[in-house]
Amino acid sequence: MGLPRPYSVSRPLRILELELAPPAAGEMLVRVTASGLCHSDLSVIEGVRPRPMPMVLGHEAAGIVEALGPGTAGFAPGDQVVFSFVPMCGACLPCAEGRPALCEPGAAANTAGTLLGGGRRWCDAPDMPVNHHLGVSGFAKHTVVSARSAVKIDSPVPAHIAALFGCAVMTGTGAVMNTARVPPGASVAVFGLGGVGLAAVLGAVASGALPIVVVDPVAEKRELALHLGATHAVRAGQGAVAEIRDITRGGAAFVFESVGHEAVLAQAYAATRRGGSTIATGLPHPSKLFSVPAVSLVAEERTVRGSYMGSAVPLRDLPRFVALYQAGRLPVDRLLTHRLSLDEVNEGFDRLAGGLAVRQVIVM
After folding, report:
1. Are residues 134 and 247 in the same domain?
2. CA-to-CA distance for 28 and 233, rounded, in angstroms?
3. C-alpha distances in Å from residue 357, one per residue of 229, 331, 343
4. Are residues 133 and 96 in the same domain?
5. Are 227 and 220 in contact (CB under 8 A)?
6. Are 306 and 177 contained in the same domain?
């Protein structure tokens, strides 16, 4: 963590051959077919989201099941799966309440760099374990995961597209459809047009929102959002809030922030109408604080909500989002801007850090 850019020179990620132990009970061996580069991975590289090192990075991925540990029901060799970056224990209070994105044992395992059961299957040498990233470790040709970190996809989807459902779509589209539950005709604004922000645009279009205003400093991303169904595009900056409030006649009913910066979140709140909701999907540095005029929460009946993993229930949402994609209502393939080989991963993160890509996928 913390090496300087350009990453093509400092090379924070190295390609190594590691020992991978076989799956234990409730786990499975998966051949990874494709893995996306996400800002959550970049945040680990930058040290914004500190994780235990060394680590096999990557969390937005798809693959084919090759072997099962004991007691692994519902899967068979040959199944195509998309990974969930929060393992779902199914027994804690959030899971019991239908909120597996907040699974408590899953969060503890992710923080510790282990699988859901507490073990590590990677090692660099005897007695030198290597950590898992969010229970997935998708930047590898094979990985061992908890069966509760994967969802079987029965419909055939190209690997480089299937991977995008594991984070960008589940987080961005899920924030619109699950967290906010945007109704038809409601006004929407989206700050930040990376993979998650553009997936939120797709979700808003599929939900019938109108108007849909997007904000980003990169002209090409604003243009792409308009092609995907956004109705207005605004350049990021100090005047963005006023433009949104003018377009939406007083502020958008639902405003999504996917940048992960407290100043942008404050702008998103300022662009939200009376009675509206501001939804944060980006992950700022843990030390950063966000403040709002306290009286507005009461006098204007305002809501600020966090949305982690799109408030998704992966077993329910991944198949339905795939079905929307196959019906032509969720053109996820439009988010893919680059296909990479594994040895191009550092160059890919340079591109991501520079805002020059939406979604890049390593095709194994």
Report:
1. no
2. 44
3. 19, 17, 18
4. yes
5. no
6. yes
- Give pLDDT tens digits along the chain (364 positions): 999 999 999 999 999 999 999 999 999 999 999 999 999 999 999 998 999 999 999 999 999 999 999 999 999 999 999 999 999 999 999 999 999 999 999 999 999 999 999 999 999 988 899 999 999 999 999 999 999 999 999 989 999 999 999 999 999 999 999 999 999 999 999 999 999 999 999 999 999 999 999 999 999 999 999 999 999 999 999 999 999 999 999 999 999 999 999 999 999 999 999 999 999 999 998 899 999 999 999 999 999 999 999 999 999 999 999 999 999 999 999 999 999 999 999 999 999 999 999 999 999 9
Any idea what the CATH number is for the domain that residue 218 is in?
3.40.50.720
Same domain, 222 and 239: yes
- Residue 176 within any structural domain of the chain: yes
Residue type, 76: A
Give the count of beta carbons closer than 10 Å to the beta carbon of residue 64.
14
Does 102 reside within a domain?
A: yes
Amino acid at 12: P
Q: Are residues 89 and 210 in the same domain?
A: no
Total number of domains constituting the chain = 2
Q: Which residue range is the domain that position 27 belongs to? A: 7-166+312-363
137 part of a folded domain:
yes
CATH code, 100: 3.90.180.10
In this structure, is residue 41 part of a structural domain?
A: yes
Cis geometry, peptide bond prior to residue 70 (ω within 30 degrees of 0): no
